[in-house]
Fold:
Amino acid sequence: MTTKKPNFIQPPNTLKMKVGEGGIPAYVLKQSQNYLESNPVDFTPYGHRYLGQLKEVKALIDKKSASPQSIHKDLVNIVMQLKSNGSMFHYQLISMVSDVMLRFLENAKTIDQDFIDIFLVYINVLEIVLNKKLRGNGGAEGYALTQELHNACLRYYAKYDVKP
Amino acid sequence: MSYDLSQVKILIVEDMQPMLALTTSLLTMFGFKNVYGARSVDEGWKLFCHYNHDLIVTDWLMEPHDGLELIRRIRKEDASPNIFVPIILMTGYSDQPRVESARDMGVTEFLMKPYTARDMYARIVQIIEKPRQFVETGEFFGPDRRRRKNFDYRGDEKRGAADKNMGDWGDPDEDMQIILRDLQENTKKI
Structure:
């Protein structure tokens, strides 16, 4: 394809024609949010499945049987699932630490021992949270944990001259 | 007076069953009566070709095809019943380069996961009340990408951020001390 002069198109707003005016009442939004926050889905089995996938990736690292690019891609996918879905199903701390881990993966340069150390800590955290079914964000302690993982990542960045 | 969503056909494509169920229930609570769910891109594409939905909500990360592949088919394939259909992409990715790459595929709005009811609502209102014009340049076809401020919207405070969501921590001090010690021990040499 080649670049050409932009052609702007305004499609018909069929949605607007169908729904009319007025938005959604505030009480409906509140009820919907309450529903999200109280949904009964148990994320634990899914969390364990993702944890198992992380351990499989760790085994690949140990065996050196996959390329760093492939390992990195797999890790990003799994960690992003944990980050995205943990909080939706009451495991806020999983989302918090996975957010830190995801940023780390986006900045880490190589898969070396320091990388593996941080990765293992992340696995350990997930394992404890899931095995003990520690739902919620963990309050001040959860924040401290997330901060500590973040600090370890910052030390990694400093050591490897990474500019996150 | 409020929106009449009963005539709107909406398609959700999400491979994680609980998330699909949760999003379906949420949209039903909003008032949508015709909510279709698909657990893969292929299934979603098939449904779209058949029902020609008014709005699509899709997850990004799926196997074997991801949400971007669905968007590509919708925007570019001849079989697509509506290349202009609004598409909300749900994602956990937050870094700008990734978001921009998805935007270049023809995403209408992004919805960061985890999301709140208000986050979802805000995207839907945006699509209804301030629809993007489309741009066709030869290299790009999709909603006009210049409304950048939408990518920065994070909605209200994220779920679980408040103290009320402390959750089921029996003895957080003890549990957390174990994890913290472990973390400090294992990363101190970095």
Observations:
- Chain B touches chain A through 73 residues (CB under 8 Å).
